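Please go through this protein, sequence plus structure tokens, and consider how the sequence yields the tokens. Keep your notes short.
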Amino acid sequence: MFKTLLVMSMFIVVILIGAKTSVAETELMWSLGVEVPVRYISKVSTGKNGVLIKGEQSNVNKKGGIRNEIVKKGFWSDQSFDKIEVKNEGKFKVYLNAPSGNDYSIKISGYGSMAHGTFTISPY
């Protein structure tokens, strides 16, 4: 009985610790297209000044860019803090400024073009 209770409590602790992990710890993959013109990456925490996004992207529409925006999602609309459009193919590094805090989202949009990429998000 005691072993079962101990194992169950350890399982609950592991679940709670896993729920607190930040997206900054892993490489994230994303894709955009006609069906999904906007993608949100949730549970982003900022540092003192905002976030650093480092990654790589590929866009079918060579003239268009991919917009990365740090927002707080709202019921009717998002509150935008900073945004930048990355127009190059390949590797990129951008800083998005926002007040220190949690529960931010990164909004990725490609104006209906097909694009995909990977990146990591780090507080700065």
Observations:
- Residues 2-21 have pLDDT under 50 and may be disordered.
- Residues 46 and 99 are 7 Å apart (CA to CA).
